[in-house]
Amino acid sequence: MDEGKLDAVAGTTVTAENQAKYSFTVGYGTTAEALVVPKTDKKQYFTIADAKALTIVTLRASPYAAYLKQNGIINYKEVETTSDALMAVSIGQADASFFSGVISGYVLKQGLFPNLQVVTSYQPALARPYVMAFPKNTGEILAKTNAAIQKLVDEGTIRQIFAKYGLTIN
Which of 25, 125, 134, 159 would staple 138 via disulfide (CB 3.0–4.6 Å)? Predict the structure, then answer.
């Protein structure tokens, strides 16, 4: 959008930095991080502290990496892509991956890493709403988009779309 090549960005996060530049829609669900481990790992992890003994792979220079560091996780690696993170766990280079639950859920539902699972006992700490971003001063289009989103949320359509692709929203 900064270069004028996009009219809107979906699935973004509201931060102080981008709040100064963009207008945001109403939320249409909540996203958070996920902990992904091999299917052979049957331990219940409730918080990131429960995973301190694991070697965790996450995305380079991401909020996930910052969260691991802030919580005293010293045995983690940073990679460039979500595929790299999942592959590292899949081939045994790491014990777990830690990044977007939406992306993790989608990729695993596609069967691309059949030996991995999202830890269902894990309680996310980085939850945030899904919103769309528009350039500032797009009042009419923003209002129309908000009305459409609200209708889709109220009808349950958004939840059905997410579920179709292995995604969970709250």
Answer: 134
**Taking the model in full, what pTM does it have?**
0.78
Indicate whether 110 and 138 sit together in one domain. Answer: no
Which H or E run includes 117? strand 116-118
| Domain range enclosing 112 | 33-118
8 Å CB contact between 146 and 14: no
| pLDDT at position 18 | 85
Other CB atoms within a 10 A radius of the CB of residue 25 amount to: 22
Helix/strand number for the chain, H first, E second: 6, 10
Give residue 111's pLDDT: 92
For residue 148, the domain's CATH number is 3.40.190.10
Mark whether 53 and 75 lie in a shared domain: yes
Give tens-digit pLDDT for 56-109.
999 998 889 999 999 999 999 999 999 999 999 999 999 999 998 888 988 998
Tokens linked to 121? 């006992």
Q: How confident is the model at residue 31 (pLDDT cuts 50, 70, 90)?
A: confident
